[in-house]
Amino acid sequence: MLKKMSKVVLSAALLAGYVGVAQAEMSREDYAVKFRRSSFTAMTWYMGPMSRMVKGEMPYDKALFARNAEYVAFLSKLPKDGFIPGSDGGDTKAKPEVWSKADKFKEANDNMEKETAKLAELAKGGNLDALKDQYGKMQKTCKACHEEFKKKAD
Prior knowledge:
Elements: H1 2-23, H2 28-54, H3 62-75, H4 97-100, H5 102-123, H6 128-149
Helix pairs in contact: 1-2, 2-3, 3-5, 5-6
């Protein structure tokens, strides 16, 4: 598990290093937007196979599901660091409510982190029915936050 987590941390560090070069040419606020968008993209990458497994669109692979759930639980902690003051402009999909309802946004983020952690813990057991239920709960936290705090695609 430590070896797998080390790979995630190394990947995040490499991503940060790559984006760090670009940071020299952009404002801290613009970099924050890129960081949080990249964090959400990484989460989505690992959620994809889990989603397909719970929907029956691909065979259930206990090891892959557990690994991805562990990664998503870790990655779910990253985006909040990119919601810094002044990062409400530019190429962002964040609504102004992220800042005007900061306590509610924090609560929504905390809920997502909690549900992803539960999914990672359940994934160790391998009970697909329990995972389907918990994946749905996790997904509801994502949807709730998107509905209130994310602009719709143009």
